[in-house]
Write a structure and sequence with these properties.
Layout: H1 8-17, H2 21-30, H3 39-42, H4 57-69, H5 73-83, H6 87-90, H7 96-103
Helix pairs in contact: 1-2, 2-7
């Protein structure tokens, strides 16, 4: 069974305090569960460049502020640090290598072996060319 329902900030604090890469990877793997994927996390695509080109910028900013207001203080700080690309500075040892190994990600942060394979047929069943 996967890890307990700690806040993301609590998990990253444990990783920060871990002494070895092996222990950091183990902690991230242990606490990686679908149960941790909150409704808020599923909305983050809207704030990634190219993730949501339909919503106007001012609306995205309003939604981001509302999201921050609904989070625990430590989770809001974590999200702002992630946005500012400072997680590795706040949580020492949270390196690219540790994260890639813990989640089986490649250099593009995609799951290894979970590649998109274009369909050879269209939705109508005809062969695409």
């Amino acid at each position: 069974m996967a890890g307990s329902q700690l806040l993301y900030s609590e998990i990253l604090e444990l990783v920060h305090k871990a002494k070895t890469k092996k222990e950091k990877v183990r902690l991230l793997k242990y606490h990686n569960s679908e149960g941790l994927r909150s409704q808020q996390v599923r909305k983050l695509f809207r704030f990634i460049e190219g993730g949501d080109n339909q919503t106007p910028q001012f609306k995205k900013e309003q939604m981001f502020i509302q999201m921050l207001e609904g989070l625990h203080e430590s989770e809001a700080e974590l999200l702002v640090n992630a946005k500012d690309k400072k997680l590795h500075q706040v949580y020492k040892g949270l390196s690219t290598n540790v994260v890639q190994e813990a989640f089986d990600w490649d250099d593009n942060f995609m799951i290894i072996g979970d590649r998109y394979v274009p369909a050879t047929r269209s939705a109508t069943g005809t062969v695409d060319e």
